[in-house]
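Thread amino acids onto this structure.
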């Protein structure tokens, strides 16, 4: 015991000596460097508290149980859950992987479809229209604007968004038109093309949905009863749902996190073709998933299961806003 105590004392004295050197060095730091070190320390502490708050919520502790931890705000983001802390940190939650039957996936698809449908129809300022509708420009009398959320319900007609020259502006981001949020419930087909950026895009169609050109969506939720087709220089992240066919082709990209689910009728099919890229979970329960040799499927089934699958929540994505 004495020998152990004798060994510890020099170690403690050595640590104290090292700490004294470090403190002396910090005091001699230039002011700008000290400020940078202080800022990094503050940001690290904020991230630590944010992660601790999320872990506490995951483990079932009620809000405010730990007084020093910040509040966690939550919302449904497509098939997943988004948790935010102080509007500085975003955590995306999926569900732990497990084996599920076709009927369970079918029930999940119904839940996702219904949630999307209700979210659009109950959105603030919903505008009811009838017959075929076409939008060709922004900030016009038809209400399609870069600054506001637009939600429309089109009965007995198709919907076309054709904004910007998709060929002429193929490599020009500066010319791309931007829309904050667009939502549409359509009793017919939907076509979206052009040189457009959506912050949020939500489409529910009883027919088919076709997206092509230089269309970009930071987050998309799209349901097409008959078909969802994404092609060309399209770049989306989010959810594609259909009860028959989903096709992603011609260099189109579905970025992480994404979910494509074709389930419902017999012979449903999901196709990844012609140098398309899919990052997430692509499934056609009781149907066919086809992928040619040029397409890339970066599968993330371990973390991307949607909220309607009854398993333990897990954090699969974290970022500073």
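Threaded sequence (321 positions):
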């Amino acid at each position: 015991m004495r020998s152990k105590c004798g060994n510890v004392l020099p170690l403690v004295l050595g640590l104290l000596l090292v700490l004294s050197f470090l403190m002396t060095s910090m005091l001699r730091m230039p002011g700008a460097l000290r400020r940078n070190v202080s800022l990094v320390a503050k940001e690290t502490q904020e991230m630590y508290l944010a992660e601790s708050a999320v872990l506490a919520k995951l483990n079932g502790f009620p809000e405010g149980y730990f007084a020093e931890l910040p509040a966690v705000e939550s919302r449904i983001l497509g098939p997943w859950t988004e948790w935010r802390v102080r509007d500085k940190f975003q955590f995306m939650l999926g569900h732990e992987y497990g084996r599920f039957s076709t009927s369970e996936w079918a029930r999940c698809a119904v839940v996702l479809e219904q949630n999307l449908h209700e979210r659009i129809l109950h959105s603030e300022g919903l505008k009811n229209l009838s017959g075929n509708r076409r939008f060709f420009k922004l900030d016009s009398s038809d209400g399609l604007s870069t600054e506001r959320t637009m939600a429309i319900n089109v009965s007995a007609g198709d919907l076309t968004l054709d904004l910007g020259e998709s060929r002429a502006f193929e490599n020009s981001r500066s010319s791309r038109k931007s829309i904050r949020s667009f939502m549409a419930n359509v009793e017919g087909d939907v076509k979206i093309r052009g040189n457009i950026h959506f912050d949020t895009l939500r489409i529910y169609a009883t027919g088919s949905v076709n997206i092509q050109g230089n269309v970009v969506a930071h987050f998309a939720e799209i349901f097409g009863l008959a078909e969802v087709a994404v092609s060309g220089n399209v770049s989306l992240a989010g959810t594609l749902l259909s009860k028959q066919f989903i096709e992603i082709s011609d260099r189109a990209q579905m970025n992480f996190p994404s979910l494509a689910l074709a389930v419902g009728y017999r012979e449903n099919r999901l196709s990844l073709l012609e140098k398309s890229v899919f990052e997430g979970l692509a499934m056609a329960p009781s149907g066919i998933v086809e992928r040619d040799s040029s397409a890339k499927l970066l599968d993330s089934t371990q973390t991307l299961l949607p909220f309607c699958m009854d398993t333990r929540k897990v954090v699969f994505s974290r970022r500073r806003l």
